[in-house]
Hints:
Blueprint (H helix, E strand, L loop, with lengths): L7 H12 L3 E5 L11 E2 L2 E2 L2 H9 L2 E4 L3 E3 L10 H11 L8 E6 L4 E5 L12 E5 L5 E6 L2 H17 L3 H4 L11 H4 L3 H8 L11 H13 L1
Helix pairs in contact: 1-4
Amino acid sequence: MNTAAPLPGLTHFLEVCQRHQILLEKEPPTHPVPPAGAPIAGLPFDPMLAVIHSRIGHFRLAEGLTLLRLVDAQGFDLHQVNERWRGERPEPLRSLLVFAKEDLLAYYYATVPSLADARGCQPVVDIDVHAAPHAIPVASDVERFFDTYARYLEALVQSPGFEEDGFAALVFPWDVPELLAADRPLVELLRAGRFDFLLPRDEETRQWVARVVDAA
C-alpha cells in the first residue's frame, strides 16, 4: 500500500481527540517501519498499520486506546508483545496480531491475518484476556476501526454519564452496535460466519452480533 495514501479514519480519530482534549500522548515515528506483509512474530504486518506507523509512532488516550510503539525501552511494543503473545496464548488467539490496547485494562486490539482481503488488509478484533479469553470483531480493516472508534468517542462525550463515569459511561464495542453496523464489509463478514472461530459461544454475544447485523 502506498505510504502516501490518505488515512481519513485515522485523521477523523485524531481530530475528535483534539477537539475533545482526550489525547494524552502523541509521538512521531522514531524507527523504520516494517513493510506491509513483513513478519511480526511470524505473522504478516497489515498494510494499513504500516502506513499508520509511517505517520505516527505512538498515542495514548486517557483511560482509552493506546497504539503500541514499534520499539519501546520497556519492552511493551509491537514486536515483543506479539512474541510473548505467540508463546502464551492458545489458538485461535495466538494467530492474531496485536497492535493496540485499552490503557490500564486487559483488552487488546488485533488484526486477523487469516481473514485478509485481496489487498492484504486485515479485519480488527477486540480481545478480552480475562477468565475466558475471546475476541469480538469491531472493523473490517484498521482504517475503519479508527473511524468507528472516533464516532464512538463522539457518542461517549455526549452521553449523560461521561463527566462522572468517563469511558465506563459507554463501553466499546458492546454499547455501540449501530456504529459498527455502518461498516458494511464487517457486517458481511459477520453474516458469512467468518468470525465464528473467534467468538465466544454464549447468548449475550449471539444477541450482540444480531444487533450489529440488524442495525445494518
